[in-house]
């Protein structure tokens, strides 16, 4: 019986030792995402595009409003008893044409708003994915040589409860967030826009996450 117990302990030992030697690190992915210079560049580009789109939409709204005011003026003229019957008829005919223009402009305005909103959303999603891919690559390339078996995102939230997935982590665990941020920003353009010597070109990235 003792011999069987001894054999069982020897079988269990490798698993126990492997677990004890597991090297784990944590990272605040949200912090790394926000600190990445490509994120800030992407946010600026998206804001610029959003402003351009808003200017376009404001112009369409102004045209729509002006056409509406012209239609109101024609309606008042068509109902003005001081005008001749022919003049009122001419105003009524012009009003129908203006109403058609107004309808066309309203449809164009709604379509433009929908299209521009969709374009911004698509670009936001694309850039967000590109940044996460950048961070994932850096974490992977950094963690292997450092001997980490597992890296946990301590900023991740549970989809079910919205509560942090990592409720507690010991201070003994290494937080690699600062190192990852340093590596992410290693190729950041120097003041004035110059790319650091030997820096690889950086991919486009998203805005917000």
Strand order of the largest sheet: 2-1-3
- Terminal CA distance: 59 Å
SSE string, helices as H and strands as E: HEHHHEEH
Mean pLDDT: 84
How many whole angstroms does the radius of gyration measure?
32 Å
Q: What do these coordinates show?
A:
There is one protein chain. The protein is mostly helical and 209 residues long. The chain has one domain (22-187). The chain has five helices and three strands, in the order H-E-H-H-H-E-E-H. The protein has helices spanning 2-20, 29-35, 37-78, 85-146, 177-184; strands at 24-27, 150-153, 174-175. Strands 2-1-3 form a three-stranded parallel β-sheet. The two termini are 59 Å apart. The relative contact order is 0.19.
Give the gist of this structure.
By secondary structure, the chain is mostly helical. Helices cover 66% and strands 5% of the residues.
Provide tags for this entry.
209 residues; mainly alpha; three-stranded parallel β-sheet; 5 helices; 66% helix; rod-shaped
Task: Give the topology, please.
Blueprint: H1 2-20, E1 24-27, H2 29-35, H3 37-78, H4 85-146, E2 150-153, E3 174-175, H5 177-184
Helix pairs in contact: 2-5, 3-4
